[in-house]
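Good morning,

Attaching, inline, the backbone tokens for the sequence recovery test we're adding to the shared suite. The designed sequence is right after.
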């Protein structure tokens, strides 16, 4: 179904037109192909019609989807509640070490556990997904829950499995149709199929929170749950208070799901690229041996002397293009973007693929090429078009934590192991499975001790 070309957003009810373009978001070709197909080669704009305004139409070539009122810090509407919760979350992340030596030591310690888990496979073929996921999730778990979990902890693995199932189901075709046509989600069978994994994760997290609060001591703040609970106590009786049980649950949900899935998937892409580009893997290991050696643990200060490794990590993020449509933003006043008049209250989503794969910026935009981030002398150069964490008010809360995780986990793994595929085994595919996050197809590798 086509849309009339216009530069204005007007008020009519043509929600059915949203279906065709929106479903294309789920193709493996992703949002970059959408911008080309619908004539948005400059490609940075996607418009969203608010679900509570059932009669909203965007007469442009841009795809649309609907959104609903949300809690927490990731998808909540811009307003005082969101401001307060985001400010609190950033402050708490810093209090528990984001960007500090204390958390760096925690990540370094977890990197050691991760390497031990890889070594336990004794050089045999295995899928690295769940070991990587456990390591990354343990970092955000320490901040939110005040603890880490063993790699064979049944309850923790159940939570990680529920989280993965939620991403898969909510990114599926039926979920996208229900987003475009909200009344379909009221059908009992369809609603249960779409929302059950989401509810399962929330219920699991709610139990953790409830158990945690039973041992809460206002004089000793162990983690984010305790810090949030303290704010709830301080704000009791305040009608404008945004610190309540629901926002605690959804803030915990936001941090755990986003904080565990994105870095895990980036590392999965990273090891996949090392399998596909053994020369790159060798150069990274040579730099590790030169700067760090084979016995000392990597630290964040090393990154300043490791231009090639830093370039490789940045190129992994660029090529993976993890969240092509980034997070939802919403206009808080009438504005104009690239000639489009956008009224107040319309949600927009930056198309990060349009900059991460921009043929005008990158020499080889559709290839893995670490030299994108190196100058003629081999020194690291950050590119202005490198925006995997988005930008603006909705930029990733945990960017500094993610950078720390990627560098310390990646260098620790390549310091101890060489990754390879035995002769006769297929090389991993480099085209993504497009969920909310673009993930690699499952693959196996051998981790050989160096």
């Amino acid at each position: 179904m086509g849309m009339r070309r216009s530069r204005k957003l007007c008020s009519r009810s043509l929600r059915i037109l949203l279906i065709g373009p929106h479903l294309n978001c789920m193709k493996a070709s992703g949002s970059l192909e959408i911008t080309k197909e619908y004539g948005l080669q400059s490609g940075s704009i996607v418009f969203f019609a608010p679900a509570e305004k059932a009669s909203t139409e965007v007469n442009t070539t841009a795809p649309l989807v609907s959104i609903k009122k949300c809690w927490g810090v990731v998808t909540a509407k811009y307003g005082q509640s969101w401001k307060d919760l985001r400010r609190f979350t950033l402050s708490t992340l810093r209090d528990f070490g984001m960007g500090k030596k204390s958390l760096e030591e925690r990540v370094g310690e977890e990197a050691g556990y991760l390497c031990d888990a890889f070594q336990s496979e004794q050089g045999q073929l295995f899928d690295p997904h769940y070991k990587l996921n456990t390591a990354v999730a343990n970092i955000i778990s320490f901040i939110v829950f005040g603890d880490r979990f063993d790699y064979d902890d049944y309850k923790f693995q159940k939570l990680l499995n529920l989280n993965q199932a939620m991403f898969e189901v909510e990114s599926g075709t039926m979920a996208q149709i229900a987003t475009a046509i909200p009344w379909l989600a009221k059908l009992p069978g369809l609603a249960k199929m779409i929302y059950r994994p989401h509810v399962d994760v929330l219920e699991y997290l709610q139990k953790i929170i409830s158990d945690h609060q039973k041992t809460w001591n206002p004089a000793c703040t162990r983690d984010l749950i305790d810090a949030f609970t303290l704010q709830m106590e301080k704000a009791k009786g305040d009608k404008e208070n945004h610190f309540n049980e629901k926002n605690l649950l959804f803030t915990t949900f936001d941090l755990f799901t986003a904080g565990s899935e994105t870095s895990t998937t980036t590392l999965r892409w990273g090891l996949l690229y090392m399998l596909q580009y053994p020369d790159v893997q060798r150069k990274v290991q040579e730099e590790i041996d030169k700067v760090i050696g084979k016995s000392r643990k990597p630290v964040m200060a090393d990154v300043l002397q490791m231009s090639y490794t830093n370039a490789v990590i940045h190129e992994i993020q660029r090529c993976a293009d993890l969240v092509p449509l980034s997070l939802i933003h919403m206009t808080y006043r009438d504005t104009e973007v690239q000639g489009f008049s956008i009224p107040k209250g319309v949600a927009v989503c930056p198309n990060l693929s349009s900059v991460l794969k921009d043929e005008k910026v990158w020499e080889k935009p559709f290839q893995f090429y670490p030299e994108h981030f190196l100058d003629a002398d081999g020194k690291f150069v950050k590119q202005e078009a490198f925006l995997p964490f988005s930008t603006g008010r909705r930029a990733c809360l945990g960017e500094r934590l993610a950078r720390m995780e990627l560098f310390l986990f990646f260098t620790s793994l390549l310091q101890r192991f060489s990754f390879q595929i035995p002769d006769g085994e297929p090389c991993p595919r480099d085209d993504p499975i497009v969920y909310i996050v673009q993930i690699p197809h499952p693959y196996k590798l051998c981790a050989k001790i160096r």
